[in-house]
From TrEMBL:
<keyword id="KW-0106">Calcium</keyword>
<dbReference type="GO" id="GO:0005975">
    <property type="term" value="P:carbohydrate metabolic process"/>
</dbReference>
<dbReference type="Pfam" id="PF01263">
    <property type="entry name" value="Aldose_epim"/>
</dbReference>
<dbReference type="InterPro" id="IPR014718">
    <property type="entry name" value="GH-type_carb-bd"/>
</dbReference>
<dbReference type="GO" id="GO:0030246">
    <property type="term" value="F:carbohydrate binding"/>
</dbReference>
<protein>
    <recommendedName>
        <fullName>Aldose 1-epimerase</fullName>
    </recommendedName>
</protein>
<dbReference type="InterPro" id="IPR011013">
    <property type="entry name" value="Gal_mutarotase_sf_dom"/>
</dbReference>
<comment type="subunit">
    <text>Monomer.</text>
</comment>
<dbReference type="InterPro" id="IPR008183">
    <property type="entry name" value="Aldose_1/G6P_1-epimerase"/>
</dbReference>
<dbReference type="GO" id="GO:0016853">
    <property type="term" value="F:isomerase activity"/>
</dbReference>
């Protein structure tokens, strides 16, 4: 466990997972062990969404790849590259064709091993500022590799009627709950504010969209995504890919209201 601190804030990171973000003693992140979800954040890469109805296969220029919901990156372990009092950098490296054990097997999946036909390196960086937390993702790998990226942070809820506010929309918790496991789409959006007992704004670069998910009232996931997976049939999930050039960089800024 690594903790980064400054005069007003502290974050806790467990093997690359953001498990705490306190500002003046107030915790914004959903705590493991609380109802709703067993994690507090993760990444969705190189796909977003389920593929069970497509035989756990996703089409790529190199042929079908064996994937499960939200991709195989989250089944891999981060390595700590470096850290200081206010920064931490984690990496995952993947060699094309390497089998990655699927934790969903056998209870929730027929696929024991997940395989991707491209090399890549995935870097996740944390920078704790006095007034915000910056999380960035840098992807390098084979030229032309198809991918989509989603970040899946989870926020702790305190009040009975929190709202999620964009530039032109206000979303209630009940609306998110009503959509269920599909997650509520928030298209063409780069900034969202969660208004609860305290407020926090999620500003993004590179993603372009959000989706919101929860099945309980004590937490909500507000997820920056490059593509909303339920816009297509699972067999056409490849329509949401973008192609890697030299590198791809995505940024998320968590800004609590002072």
């Amino acid at each position: 466990m690594i903790q980064l601190k400054n005069n007003t804030s502290e974050i806790s990171i467990d093997k690359g997972e953001l498990v705490g973000y306190k500002v003046n003693g107030f915790e914004f992140i959903h705590q493991k062990g609380s109802p709703g979800w067993s994690s507090s954040d993760t990444e969705m890469f190189p796909i977003i969404g389920p593929v069970n109805k497509a035989g756990f296969r996703v089409q790529t220029p190199k042929g079908p790849a064996v994937q499960d919901q939200h991709g195989h990156l989250r089944q891999m372990e981060y390595e700590l590259a470096n850290h200081s009092d206010t920064t931490a950098v984690y990496e995952k490296k993947y060699k094309a064709g390497t089998e990655v054990f699927n934790a969903k097997f056998p209870e929730k999946s027929t696929e024991e091993a997940l395989i991707w036909p491209y090399d890549f390196k995935f870097k996740k960086s944390f920078v704790l500022h006095e007034d915000s937390l910056e999380i960035s993702f840098r992807i390098t790998g084979e030229q032309g590799m198809p991918f989509m990226l989603g970040y899946h942070p989870t926020f702790k809820l305190y009040s009975s009627a929190p709202t999620i506010v964009t530039k032109n929309r206000e979303i209630t918790l009940d609306e998110v709950l009503a959509v269920g496991s599909r997650a509520l789409q928030v298209a063409d959006c780069t900034s969202i504010t969660l208004k609860d007992e305290k407020e926090i704004t999620i500003e993004t670069k590179g993603f372009g969209n959000f989706m919101c998910w929860t099945e309980v009232r004590n937490m909500v996931c507000i997820e920056p995504i490059s593509f909303y997976p339920y816009a297509v049939e699972q067999s056409h999930l490849h329509n949401g890919f973008q192609l890697l050039e030299d590198e791809a960089v995505f940024n998320v800024l968590l800004k609590p209201k002072a």
